[in-house]
């Protein structure tokens, strides 16, 4: 169980991401909104880097609604002691029904393996967590992660 200090220190952060394929213009600002934190826009707004400090992380969300499809991001996790930090890439619904697909990288104490936790929420019900110890170092370079969602499956 998390103490209140641990809970307050849990930060949601996407370290770097390519925005979803845009519906309108090709720039970040035409298709996304920064919900909190600091976002550095690169390559004419086609790539963003989100940062964190001791007080907060960063996040953005799409201005558009999407149905099924393939969603991907490139993430390089922060180095060193990241206990209490959750780096997340997720899809979520709006409205009364809470649906969500999660990729969450759980922070750790230096030198320990980084775990990836996935979860699926459908109609507000989760409890489908799966945790994986990664076989590679996600802090060494950018890696591509994706979610394929269609009428038959979520991969």
UniProtKB/TrEMBL annotation:
Q: Which domain of life is it from?
A: Eukaryota
For this chain's UniProt record, which GO biological process terms are given?
carbohydrate metabolic process
Recorded GO MF terms = hydrolase activity, hydrolyzing O-glycosyl compounds
- Which SUPFAM superfamilies has this protein been placed in? Concanavalin A-like lectins/glucanases
Catalytic residues at 100 (nucleophile), 104 (proton donor)
Origin organism lineage: Eukaryota, Viridiplantae, Streptophyta, Embryophyta, Tracheophyta
The organism named in the record is: Microthlaspi erraticum
Protein's name in the database: GH16 domain-containing protein
Q: Where are the transmembrane segments?
A: none
Q: Where is the signal peptide?
A: 1-19
Q: Which residues form the GH16 domain?
A: 14-155
Q: Which PROSITE patterns match?
A: GH16_2
| InterPro entries, per the entry | Beta-glucanase-like, Beta-glucanase/XTH, Beta_glucanase, ConA-like_dom_sf
Q: Which UniProt keywords apply?
A: Glycosidase, Hydrolase, Signal
